[in-house]
Each structure stands twice: as structure tokens, then as C-alpha cells.
Specification:
Layout: H1 3-21, H2 28-46, H3 49-54, H4 56-81, H5 89-113
Length: about 120
């Protein structure tokens, strides 16, 4: 398991804690985007590299999950900018880091399936 996949698991855990901690204040769309992001991160992190190397279809599905994760994070960042009391810069920074890890893993997977 690569370092980027371990970092994906860490960010997924942080998102789970955030959803549980702020459960009463979370809107429906934020909850859906958060669950989507967590699900994509967990699936991408636990797909073995040998499965990606052996089947391009599995690699493409995992790459698609990385793209879906980045899109969901982008929508969460947009919601963070539209808060009543101003942008939550700490959450935005963490989400940008999370998206960059998705991009990193996606590039690694693209390199593996293009061999």
C-alpha cells in the first residue's frame, strides 16, 4: 500500500469524525457529498495494486472513483465558501489536501493502466 493510499484513509477517517461531530448542523447535500467522498476514498485505498495491474477495467473504475471523489470534494469546498459567517478556511485547506491526494492516487493508477 502506497503512502498516498494511507493518507486517503487518514482523510476518510477525519471526514467521518467531522460528519459525526457536526451531524446536527450538516445539511443533506453536505452529508451526501461527505459520504460519497468517504466511500470513494475507502474503495480506492483498499483495491490492491495487483488487481489494477491485472485488469484495465478495474483500474478505470478506480480512476473514475478518484474523479468522483475530487468532484464531491470540490462541491464541499464550494459550500464552505458559501457559509453565513464566512469561509471556513481550515476545512477548505483540508479538503484541498484531500483532493490533491485523490489526484495523486489517480495519476498513479493512470500510469499503471497505461502500461
Amino acid at each position: 500500500m502506497s503512502i498516498a493510499r494511507i493518507v486517503l484513509l487518514v482523510f476518510a477517517f477525519i471526514n467521518v469524525l467531522g460528519l459525526v461531530w457536526f451531524f446536527e448542523d450538516v445539511s443533506g447535500s453536505t452529508f451526501i457529498y461527505g459520504i460519497t467522498t468517504i466511500s470513494c476514498a475507502l474503495i480506492v485505498a483498499f483495491v490492491p495494486g495487483s488487481a489494477i495491474d491485472s485488469s484495465k477495467h478495474i483500474g478505470m473504475i478506480v480512476l473514475l472513483l478518484c474523479v468522483i471523489g475530487v468532484i464531491a470534494i470540490s462541491l464541499l469546498i464550494l459550500q464552505d465558501y458559501q457559509r453565513k459567517y464566512g469561509a471556513d478556511t481550515g476545512a477548505i485547506f483540508m479538503r484541498v489536501l484531500f483532493a490533491s491526494v485523490f489526484v495523486s492516487v489517480g495519476l498513479e493508477i493512470r500510469r499503471r493502466i497505461s502500461k
